[in-house]
Amino acid sequence: MKRTILNKTVGVGVLEWKAEETLSKSLESYKKEKIIKLFDEALIHFQDGNENDKTIAKKFGFKASFEKNSGFLGGMVKIFNELKTDYVLFLENDFPLIVSHNNFKKQLENSVQLLEENSADVVRLFSKKNPGDLFSDVEKYLRYYKLQNPISHNVEKLQPSMFKRFLYNTVKIKNRRKFIGRAVYVEKNPHKIFPKKISKVGEFFIVDSSVINWTNRAVLLKRKFFLETLLPYINDNLKKKTTNGFQTPENILRKWWQDQHFKVAVGEGAFTHSRKDNSWRENYPFKKNI
């Protein structure tokens, strides 16, 4: 196996379940910018897949793996076990690329360097300015904090009234602290507003996990970190309450993640959340037409 970045191997895994049009749109964006050649391994894991899926994977330069639907956690575990690279970029079928090849290459190299230097434990690679559908971090942050120096006009559109912010800071004040990390999607200089929780390394903000949640959205991390640190905790703490009968990492990790003080890196980002088979929030200001 070749070693692509800093003498380390990097793989990309895409989780797919019955969304051929959406997946194809994402894969076309990767093909257009020729990013698959940046990886040592590329895998699409199909849940409830068929023979046609194997053809799709091959067409775009991916290996294919298959299983019955085992839910989000099951699919994620399968990807991290199938790929044998030092680092894994985990994507879902609805995360097309929205930056150029050179931009992405630079972000990927810088992300691996952060992880290699232990400056970060996980790097978020979904777009900061165009995160896409179902992204509510900005609204949640603005419920509690006054806007100072916004990163885009889209942010300004989501400001609540002063009265509404007052209510949240009165009635739900206990939640205020945990939304500090969302400042990286709102403010140009969040590290100056919250220096105890957010720092800056190069083009990245490093956020303490006590104030920013674990997310499955376009994340890059060490394969061993997922398999040897996150997964053992997940397996020992499965929830009675599930999502459609399946376990989800986000629900299981929530409280523990906050207590670990992991380092979460957030940079410009390269992917957005967008579905071919209609958006959930068509008029959302962060929705980018792909």
Task: Give structural notes.
The protein has a nine-stranded mixed sheet with strand order 3-2-1-4-8-5-9-7-6, with helices on both faces. With 290 residues, the chain is an alpha/beta fold. It has ten helices and nine strands. Helix 2 links the parallel strand 2 and strand 3.
Layout of helices and strands, plus pairs?
Blueprint (H helix, E strand, L loop, with lengths): L9 E8 L2 H13 L8 E7 L3 H9 L3 E5 L3 H12 L4 E6 L8 H16 L5 E5 L10 H6 L10 H4 L5 H10 L18 H4 L4 E4 L2 E5 L10 E4 H14 L12 H12 L2 E9 L19
Parallel strand pairs: 1-2, 1-4, 2-3, 5-9
Antiparallel strand pairs: 4-8, 5-8, 6-7, 7-9
Key attributes of the depicted protein:
290 residues, alpha/beta, Spore Coat Polysaccharide Biosynthesis Protein SpsA, Chain A, nine-stranded mixed β-sheet, 34% helix, 18% strand, globular
From the spread of the alpha carbons, the general shape counts as globular
Low-confidence stretches: 279-286
Give me the secondary-structure category. Answer: alpha/beta
CATH level-3 fold name of the domain at 10-129 and 191-271: Spore Coat Polysaccharide Biosynthesis Protein SpsA, Chain A
CATH level-4 homologous superfamily of the domain at 10-129 and 191-271: Spore Coat Polysaccharide Biosynthesis Protein SpsA, Chain A
Distance between the termini: 34 Å
Residues in helix, %:
25-40%
What's the arrangement of strands in the largest beta sheet?
Answer: 3-2-1-4-8-5-9-7-6
Biggest sheet layout = 9 strands, mixed
Radius of gyration: 19 Å
Instruction: Give the strand tally.
Output: 9
CATH class placement of the domain at 10-129 and 191-271: Alpha Beta
Strand fraction = 15-25%
Query: Architecture of the domain at 10-129 and 191-271, according to CATH?
Result: Alpha-Beta Complex
What is the helix tally? Answer: 10
* Quaternary status: single chain
Order of helices and strands: EHEHEHEHEHHHHEEEHHE
Q: What is the mean pLDDT?
A: 91
